[in-house]
Amino acid sequence: MWDLEISKIIVEEFTEKLKKSLDVDVAIVGGGPSALAASYVLSKNGFNVIIFEEKNEPGGGTWGGGMLFNELVVEEDVEWFLEELDMKYKKTKGFISIDSVHFASALLYNSTKVGTKIFNNVFVEDVLMSKERINGVVINWAPVIRQRLHVDPITVKAKYVIDGTGHPASVVNMVIDRNLSIDLPLGKIREFPMNAKEGEKFVLENTKEILPGLLVMGMAAVSVGGGPRMGPIFGGMLKSGIKIANIIIENIDVEVKG
Ligand code: 48H
Predict the structure, then answer these.
(1) CA distance linking residue 33 with residue 30, whole number of Å
(2) How far is the CA of 33 from the centre of ligand 1 (A)?
């Protein structure tokens, strides 16, 4: 009976995918542009990478461009990456302009094509930690969280966890709530007013490992470092994702205990 077979395929294949994703090299929280760039580079280099995205549609803040004008801008120094991902774009006035839907789709397609597993509708509600390092994440279905259902989560072990949650820097906030001290340059998580040029520089400088096993990238790195926001210019998000991937590639030989 077709209907039953279809249901069986879905349940079996999803279970298989989830089982393979319970012990990974890198768990990325949030499925925005920095996450997709990082996961593309890491997966392409043979790392086992998963992304947890609480929304139905991964892609974060890319889809709407600037003020719903679905066009976004990147700097010319990321042209090589757009080429690698086979994107269509237009060079204009010293910048590159890209249709934001095409940009999001290309990132999603390429990241998943090289092996990243994206779990949408999954909310990361906590981290796994030992005294020495962050060891993974605690996940639940996002609708369970939204409906405030009393349902316990499950855990995922990861050598590295990346906070790619954008402006709120949710993972860093969770870790601070657990009384772990993180060196926040301003003493708290906050952003400053729009300044595209400064913001694009700042995001890269603040893309780093902030605790053993926990890294920040994208707008989360701006919020944690306390820098200016930069609106719909997205080169910094790509460069931040690529930088974090390279940091991990150079340090992956960590032994995770527990
Ligand atoms: C699962 C979660 C959780 C959670 C959040 O905001 P994003 O697009 O992330 P970035 O940093 O890659 O890109 C930022 C960019 O989109 C942007 O907003 C810019 C450049 N702004 C500049 C400005 O001036 O405003 O995506 C983060 C994703 C979202 O899709 C969230 O739904 C998701 O993370 N998320 N997913 N578990 N706990 N928290």
Answers:
(1) 9
(2) 8
d(CA 47, CA 25): 6
**165 within 8 A of 221, measured Cβ to Cβ:** no
Report CA(58)–ligand 1 centroid distance (Å): 10
Q: Where are the domains of the chain?
A: 30-64+100-249
Q: Which atom of ligand 1 is nearest to the CA of 34?
A: 12
Ligand 1 atom having least distance to the Cα of 174: 38
* The pair of three-digit structure tokens given for residue 37, joined into one six-digit string: 């760039």
Per-residue pLDDT of the chain (258 residues; tens, 9 = 90+): 899 999 999 999 999 999 999 999 999 999 999 999 999 999 999 999 999 999 999 999 999 999 999 999 999 999 999 999 999 999 999 999 999 999 999 999 999 999 999 999 999 999 999 888 999 999 999 999 999 999 999 999 999 999 999 999 999 999 998 877 788 888 889 999 999 999 999 999 999 999 999 999 999 999 999 999 999 999 999 999 999 999 999 986 654 443
Task: Please check if 54 is assigned to a binding site.
Answer: yes
Residue type, 197: K
What global pTM score does this model have? 0.97
CATH fold group of domain 30-64+100-249? FAD/NAD(P)-binding domain (3.50.50)
229 is in an annotated binding site: yes
Does residue 200 have a known ligand-binding role?
no
